[in-house]
Structures are given as structure tokens and as C-alpha cells.
Write a structure and sequence with these properties.
There is one protein chain. The chain is of the alpha+beta class and about 400 residues long. It has a domain of about 220 residues. The protein has 9 helices and 17 strands. A hairpin with a 4-residue loop joins strand 1 and strand 2. The radius of gyration is 25 Å and the shape is flat.
Length: about 400
């Protein structure tokens, strides 16, 4: 994605500054100072109510929103990786950039990922890996915000409701025919990822009250359970499933239902919206809405069913405890990376020519501010690229197989 964003914005900024056919109407701030476009404060001075001015305003707001979101994601990943590193005994001096200008999120998470990989490879037998169960976050985008943004950008009193390009998710308090993320009372006929409190017909990963067929090195059940399972269940859970039921919630679903819900309070979109407006307004409003998306926390259980040597067991347990505490935030930020930037960038970049034309029509101040926004966009792309890379690398480290003999 960085290959898409950086060259496009760089070329865009150069084209604007070299443009000779610029309206002389707006000369209030030809350099676009921080008073007019304040990136840190996330504010800007509106360029007016004309069609072109509205497009510039929407574009600048989208740039500010994407910038703030990627800063939050990168900072969140950096602090989370550092917290895991502290648990594992890494010193701050071990976090060093490999190249000049490398972002902290890159070199901090890289060093921690290396340590995670080293611990797992040394502790687990060849071919074995940690058992990781993830109930992924559900990200929701406010359709009413996207509609209001499009109405303001296009100066239209009413705008066609944006189409959900993802999956509709209902806030449910009744029965659910599909998957249920929350608490499923009365039994789950699919996979219960999270906590099954009752009888598990498949593999129970957690605490078993009686008759567990296999346990891991910490005494946790990782096999069939003849009694009550308090943990994740790979097949039908006849009790309450808290977390995520993949299908067939037989009682009531108190949470988010992907399917038909008998009693629902609201329906939201898990994915992106196709905003029904012209290219520039649509791209800017989609980017703003995606940057403001809210995501639920993932639920993660981590353990190992492999036999581990006493010498390696203590360090592996420290790692598992740390991952149980901190890995959900890495998964959450990885999901936000996809929702915030990856799904916004293509249309946003494609709309640049139209934004450049609008800026030229408005005047020198608009040209300067859009060019400044292009510079900010290169920073957005750099943070996005680094954050996406470390998220992939960290997940790969957690999933690595052991090499111990």
C-alpha cells in the first residue's frame, strides 16, 4: 500500500506547486500555515461553500483523520510490543533502528518478535506450536456519519444511504440463526471460541471438572472432557458460550448476530461503505468514516499441549502469560490497519486528480494546503506500511513451530 500512496501523493504535490493555472481569488494564506491547516490539532480553516471548496474541506478532514488513526495504531503497537519485551526481560537498549529514520514501531516490535520466536523454537518440540484461539474484533462504521459527510460535501439536503460492502451485524437480544459474538445461552452447535460453560462434545481447551483425556504442560485440558468444560470448545457446547459461537446459537444471543436475529436493536456494517456521491466526496467521506470505525476487543486463549523440558518451561510460561495479556491489542490494531487505511486508500488515491483541480479553482491557499496534505499522506503511508509489516511478523512469530529435540 505504501507503493500506492507515497508516489501518488508526492507526484500530486509537485504537480500542484508547479501549476500555473491557479485562481487568484484566494490569497489569504498562500503558504498554508498551521493556522489554516493544523495537523497536530486536527483543525483547518474552511475554504467556503462552493462545490470545489467543500471537496477541499472533506479531503483535508480525511487526511487529518487518517493521520491521527495511523499515529494511534503505530503508537499502540509500539507500547504493546515494549510491554511484552519488558515481561521477557528485554532492555530498552536492545531496541535499535536498523536504518536511519526507521520508525519505533518497526524496530521495537521486530526485536520483540525475534525474542518470541526464539523462546517458542527453543521450548517446543519440532513441529509443535502454541495453541492459539482468536475471536476476532468486530469493527463497525457509522453509516449516518458517512451520509452526513456526503451531504455536506455535495451540498445536498439528502443523500442516498451508503451501501454496506461488508457484512451486516445486528445487535441481538433474541435467537440467532447465524454466528453469535457475545454470549449464547442455551447451547452452541458450532465451534465455541471463547468460554464454554457446560458440556463440550469436542476438544475442550481450558479447565475440565472431570475426565479430561489430555492436558498440557500447565495442567490445562486440551482433550475431550467428560465433565463441565470452562474454556473453548471445538464442537457443540450444551451450556453457555461466551465469546463467539460460529453457528447455531440455540438459545438467546446477547451480542452481535451475523444472520437472522429474532429481537434486534440495531444493524451495523462490519466492513466498508460505498458512499453514494461524486468521486472526491465519496473517497473523502469513506476515509473519514473508516478512520472513525470502532472495534470490539478480540478474545484470545493461548496455551500448549506439547511436552516441554523443565529448563524451557518457565520461560515459555512467562511468554504465554504475557501474550495472553497483550496479544489481543496487537490483533486489534492489525484489524484496524485493514479497516482504517487498506480499505480507504485505493479510492482516496484515485480521487487526487479531481481534488487538484478543485484546489486550483479555489486559489493559492487551497493549492498549498492540499500540497501539505500530500506530505502528511506520505507519513500516513510510512506508518501504515511499518505497522502492517510488524503485525504480520509478530503473528508469524507467535505461530512458529518448535525446533527442540
Amino acid at each position: 500500500m505504501k507503493r500506492l500512496l507515497v508516489p501518488a501523493f508526492a507526484t500530486f504535490g509537485l504537480a500542484l506547486t508547479a501549476c500555473g493555472d491557479v485562481s487568484p481569488n484566494d490569497l489569504r494564506d498562500p503558504t498554508c500555515s498551521a493556522t489554516t491547516f493544523n495537523v497536530e490539532g486536527r483543525t483547518f480553516t474552511t475554504f467556503g461553500t462552493t462545490a470545489d471548496a467543500r471537496k477541499i474541506d472533506a479531503f483535508l478532514q480525511a487526511t487529518l483523520d487518517l493521520n491521527a488513526a495511523t499515529i494511534e495504531i503505530a503508537d499502540g503497537l509500539t507500547s504493546t510490543c515494549a510491554a511484552i519485551g519488558t515481561d521477557l526481560g528485554l532492555a530498552a537498549s536492545e531496541y535499535r533502528p536498523s536504518t536511519a529514520g526507521e520508525l519505533p514501531v518497526a524496530y521495537t516490535c521486530r526485536r520483540v518478535s525475534q525474542e518470541v520466536r526464539t523462546i517458542i523454537e527453543a521450548a517446543l518440540p519440532r513441529g509443535a506450536s502454541l495453541d492459539v484461539t482468536i475471536v476476532p474484533p468486530v469493527c463497525q462504521i457509522d453509516v449516518s456519519f458517512a451520509a452526513r459527510c456526503a451531504a455536506q460535501c455535495t451540498a445536498t439536503a439528502t443523500v442516498e444511504v451508503p451501501r454496506c460492502m461488508g457484512e451486516l451485524v445486528a445487535e441481538c437480544t433474541g435467537s440467532c440463526s447465524g454466528s453469535c459474538a457475545g454470549t449464547c445461552d442455551g447451547g452452541c452447535t458450532g465451534v465455541c471460541s471463547g468460554m464454554c460453560t457446560g458440556t463440550c462434545m469436542g476438544t475442550c481447551v481450558g479447565q475440565c471438572s472431570a475426565g479430561c483425556s489430555a492436558t498440557d504442560s500447565t495442567g490445562r485440558c486440551i482433550g475431550t472432557c467428560a465433565g463441565t468444560c470452562n474454556g473453548s470448545c471445538s464442537a457443540t457446547c450444551t451450556g453457555s458460550c461466551t465469546g463467539s459461537c460460529s453457528a447455531g446459537c440455540q438459545g438467546s444471543c446477547r451480542g452481535q448476530c451475523r444472520g437472522t436475529c429474532s429481537v434486534q436493536s440495531s444493524v451495523r456494517c462490519d466492513g466498508t461503505y460505498d458512499v453514494q456521491a461524486d468521486a472526491q466526496c465519496s473517497a473523502a467521506c469513506e476515509a473519514q468514516a473508516n478512520a472513525r470505525a470502532t472495534c470490539t476487543d478480540p478474545q484470545i486463549t493461548i496455551g500448549s499441549r506439547a511436552t516441554v523440558s523443565p529448563a524451557a518451561l518457565q520461560r515459555l510460561n512467562v511468554l504465554v502469560t504475557s501474550l495472553q495479556r497483550h496479544y489481543p491489542r496487537i490483533v486489534l490494531n492489525a484489524t484496524r490497519i485493514d479497516r482504517v487505511v487498506r480499505q480507504s486508500a485505493p479510492n482516496f488515491v484515485a480521487s487526487l486528480n479531481g481534488v487538484g483541480t478543485a484546489a486550483s479553482n479555489v486559489g493559492l491557499s487551497a493549492v498549498a494546503c492540499v500540497a501539505r496534505a500530500g506530505v502528511v499522506a506520505t507519513d500516513i503511508a510510512s506508518r501504515f506500511s511499518a505497522s502492517a509489516q510488524v503485525s504480520v511478523e509478530f503473528s508469524a512469530s507467535v505461530s512458529v513451530q518448535g525446533t527442540a529435540q
